[in-house]
Design goal:
Number of strands: 8
Distance between the termini: 25 Å
Helix content: 40-55%
CATH topology: Rossmann fold
Largest sheet: 8 strands, mixed
Number of domains: 1
CATH superfamily: Alpha/Beta hydrolase fold, catalytic domain
Strand order of the largest sheet: 1-2-4-3-5-6-7-8
Shape: globular
CATH architecture: 3-Layer(aba) Sandwich
Length: 290
């Protein structure tokens, strides 16, 4: 697998970095990572799918070698969605599939709902649909408790705490990995953490705080389900042991995603694509070749 760096100018002052591999004339897969990761999290998928797809693993705005504006407002959902639209247009829209995880999934859910013409298929891994997530943050005590970390990441200065002791908190979040992989993640985080934290700061989806009781209920009530309806064929892969995102977030998802396939991996955690590579790749390949 030969990886090449490529850059996409997606907005004034914004340039996204990506790693590209696979045959230039093959159908394109766009891989979109989450927090606190970068393109490197998809390396096992790139090795598998670059045999017969053109694979593009992007660094989202705010991460690694992509532009990292410091302003919180630079990470509004519409701007992140437009970044992906610009990448896909440069790749020759539509791509065969978008494959996304965590915050990459959150952005890609919006892209799939608002711009279904940009992709033929959508695969999302442990990333909740906005409507079910908003409802759970308003009414599900277990999910509210599991999501308290979001409020911590919204606080000023949390970047320093994340970087302390050689990024101890971030490495603990990602679970065990060999030293060569740790070095890759360390280099990524040394380039900046504010952009990643700003995803949490700008998002309206987070639990109530003592200063804002009832806010989550109001946010959930204000969302318009028709704006989050996804019509493209969709594959959800979900590790049921995710400590931050409970399986109950899948309850009722069929109402918003009528062309849905759901594959659960019992007991798998949040980093399921890295820790259960074989099963995840098999499910993706089956979906991509349907």
């Amino acid at each position: 697998m030969e990886l090449q760096s490529h850059y996409f100018d997606t907005a004034p002052g914004i340039r996204l970095h990506a790693k590209v591999c696979g045959p230039a004339d093959a159908p394109t897969l766009l891989f979109v990572h989450g927090f606190p990761e970068f393109w490197f999290t998809w390396r096992r998928q790139l090795a598998e799918f670059s045999r017969d797809y053109r694979c593009v693993a992007v660094d989202l705005r705010g991460f690694n070698l992509s532009s990292q504006p410091l302003e919180v407002e630079a990470y509004k959902a519409k701007l992140l969605i437009n970044d992906l639209r610009a990448v896909i247009e440069a790749l020759a829209s539509p791509v065969h599939a978008v494959v996304a995880h965590d915050w990459g999934g959150a952005v890609s859910w919006g892209l799939a709902a608002q711009h279904p013409e940009s992709m033929k298929k959508f695969a999302v891994i442990n990333s909740p649909h906005a409507i079910t997530f908003a409802k759970s943050l308003a009414t599900d005590p277990a999910q509210i408790e599991a999501s308290q970390y979001m409020n911590w990441l919204r606080k000023p200065g949390c970047e320093a705490a994340l970087a302390a002791d050689d990024f101890q908190r971030l490495f603990a979040m990602l679970d065990a990995m060999p030293e060569d992989e740790r070095a890759e993640y360390r280099a990524n985080w040394q380039r900046g953490l504010t952009g990643g934290c700003n995803y949490y700061r700008v998002s309206p989806l987070h639990p109530d705080t003592p200063e804002t009781p009832g806010r989550a209920i109001a946010v959930a009530a204000a969302l318009k389900p028709e704006q989050f309806h996804v019509t493209v064929p969709t594959q959800i892969i979900w590790g049921t042991g995710d400590r931050a995102l409970r399986p109950s977030l899948l309850d009722g998802i069929e109402a918003f995603v009528p062309d849905l396939r759901l594959h659960k991996i019992d007991g798998a955690g949040h980093w399921v694509a890295r820790e259960h590579t074989g099963e995840v790749n098999a499910v993706l390949r089956r979906f991509l070749t349907e």
